[in-house]
Amino acid sequence: MIPGYDVHAIRADFPILADKVRGKPLVFLDSAASAQKPRAVIDAVTDFYSHGYANIHRGVYQLSATATHAFEGARDAVQRFIGARDRREIVFVRNATEAINLVARTWAESNLEAGDEILITALEHHANIVPWQMLGDRRGTRLKVAPIDDRGEVVLDAFEDLLGERTKLVAISHVSNALGTVNPVAGMIAMAKQRGITVLVDGAQAVPHMAVDVSRLGCDFYVFSGHKLFGPTGIGVLYGRLPVLDAMPPFLGGGDMIESVTFEKTSYAPVPARFEAGTPDIAGAIGLRAAIDYLGTIGLDRISAWEHELLVYANAVLGRIEGLRMIGTAPCKAAVVSFVLDGVHAHDVGTALDQAGIAVRVGHHCAQPVMDIYGVPATVRASFSLYNTKAEVDVLAAAIRETLEIFR
Amino acid sequence: MDEIRELYQATILDHNKKPRNFRVIGEAALHADGHNPLCGDKLTVYVALDDRDRVVDAAFRGSGCAISTASASMMTELVKGMTTDEVQREFEIFHHLVTSPCDEPVDVESLGKLAVFSGVREFPMRVKCATLAWHTLRAALAGGAEVAKTE
Q1: Contact A223, A202 (CB under 8 A)
Q2: What residues in A contact B5, CB-CB < 8 Å?
């Protein structure tokens, strides 16, 4: 038990958790793909569209000023949430994927040349692999990959050895989406920074589960999606250290990112507006702010503690099931269990669990290289969040046993 | 989990566990690779024709879920002895079976053993698993130049 943590009260904040699926109570164990939304977020978006909506940064009328204030207030909330020193370091994007592509298209395009190296880890999501491969096709940069061990942890000695003369960027996930491994990013960032290497951290799987302080971490970029943080889809965040961000050329061209435009020459707006061309997802930012405020009322430290309890319980309960093999057993993990069942393909498991009202992710989790390392085509991934309970772990375990029985 | 037993009928579970014709046919055979990128199912279908375009042998190799494995296994059994035109007709019957509305009656007579796949209609996410082998067989008969993908 976590003092003051009332999971049933928290569940009551999420309308969808009272729903039934196939006549059974929904057991939602796929928050790592996208988290459910608390009423506070749903209401914030509805209220904004009902009573506060106008475009921002333009109108002289009151409604536009109020909307602008709400949007910029969301930026302040994000700044405080991740410990950024300056509100200008927060750029609103669509999601973590777009944030990484933005860095690849702007910072990397203007700072890297043929033969330069980008170091990632073998745990990365496709979103932190493919943009660097595309950059390589355009610029001749090379991708280096730090290996992981049997437990799904980055081999730190190998990581450090790969930091070479030509390494210009380290791009690493804070938490693995496929296995749940929490990477020791503070140490990895320090190794890179000692050598003057720029660092990007993909925090999509970290921010919903632990307090993050980007200033203390010392990375140059930190990216995450709003929808995994209980916010709306379509809003995400790129944090960039101010001097780095300030030196970057624009990403998309259009309105809102300019200072002045003539047909001869355009001068660009200062950051963050330089990277926010066109009308942004205003309601998304406002919803994200509501999500951050909601998490603040519970406290991320308490959420981490609760999720850790769920993980320990899940490991114990699922570990007793004969024929279940855990994939990724790092000692420091977020509340994610990835597993395979003897003789049952992950997709068949997913369909069977769905019958019991259990939503899990099956497949390669946008991390095919991780699957290849473990020699499995796919895994079943149950990811736990602040609203999950031990009783749900029991429902999962019972359904797994029944599935094994059917396919025996 | 009654619906699950409805989907995974004994025949399907049996073919999944002991897939028939799970082998490679030598160099003379037509073959094609099939890939379901969403699921990671991958298989290769081999087919040998005689000089009158009749299937004299069909086989497959690969890895996939129970639905795709059983579908491939039963398909290789079914098409042996058929002409390529008959295979095409069978493909259409099967495709219709797994994509038709759930309340449409199943014509067991024309489907034969394939009728066990009628449960797939209730699981739209799994239709591609059931049809992968069939798409791959068609690609093999067409020359096998490209990797077959489900839809």
Answers
A1: yes
A2: 406
* Mean pLDDT (chain A, rounded): 96
Place A384 in a pLDDT band, splitting at 50, 70 and 90: very high
Confidence (pLDDT) at B147: 63
Interface contact A351-B7, CB threshold 8 A:
yes
Contact A363 B4 (CB under 8 A): no
B17 at interface of A, judged by CB pairs closer than 8 A: yes
This prediction's pTM = 0.93
Instruction: Give me the total of CB pairs closer than 8 Å, taking one residue from chain A and one from chain B.
Output: 56
Vertex A65 angle, CA A62 and A71, to 5°: 145
User: B65 vs A345: CB contact, 8 Å cut-off?
Assistant: yes
ipTM: 0.87
* A366 is known as an active-site residue: yes
- A224: burial class by Cβ within 10 Å (0-12, 13-18, 19+)? buried
Distance separating alpha carbons of residues B39 and B66, to the nearest angstrom: 12
